[in-house]
Amino acid sequence: MVAWGMETDAMCVLCKSAAETLDHLFFQCSYSAKLWKSILALTGYSRGPLTSWQAEISWLVTHFQWNTLLSKVRRFSFVVLVYKLWGERNNRIFKGGELTAGVILRQVMNDTRGRFSGGKWAASDDNRTRDFFATWGIQVHFGAIGRIAAGQVLFATAGGFCGDCVLKAELEAIRCGMAKAKDMGIPQIQVRSYSKCVVQMITGLYTTHLGTIWD
Ligand SMILES: [Zn+2]
Hints:
Elements: H1 22-28, H2 30-42, H3 53-63, H4 69-95, H5 101-117, E1 121-124, H6 127-136, E2 142-147, E3 153-160, H7 166-183, H8 196-203
Antiparallel strand pairs: 1-3, 2-3
Helix pairs in contact: 1-2, 2-4, 2-5, 4-5
The structure holds zinc ion.
């Protein structure tokens, strides 16, 4: 508590109705609890906050331990919320301004969207994942489907990257599909693409159509 610069007998500036402790400020406070509930709902969980750091962190560790994009978005949004709550608390004490919980929620969503919209990522492609990214406003740029020779779907992946080049999206989709096939231990694959350029690039027959600019 000393490290966080808190005085235990001070009143919580967020709800103005209870003593400020770390657990109160971040989890038990009505202002914070409302935000936790919203962020948890956005990450697919229907519950309010737990009542202490210890409980919340052990829940986080067991639920979001994976290196998947969904887990990363969830972890990131939680960290941003903690940071914003602390910032709002300091803002009220030192500057006197007050932001509503709705404004803080939009800030958390914007920061999370900004962090993941520009980055390169890939995730398994299903309705749940698509819904999740649509909720957060994170753009999906490409997808790849793996099938067995008879046509039955084996896997589907989707991803995003920085930029909007169609050719790059096609190549990323292929890279992503090949990586997934490798992960699954599939020894041999056939790559199909609707893009003539991509097929030419993979088979080494691609030649650029750009002329010399400065002549
Ligand atoms: Zn409070």
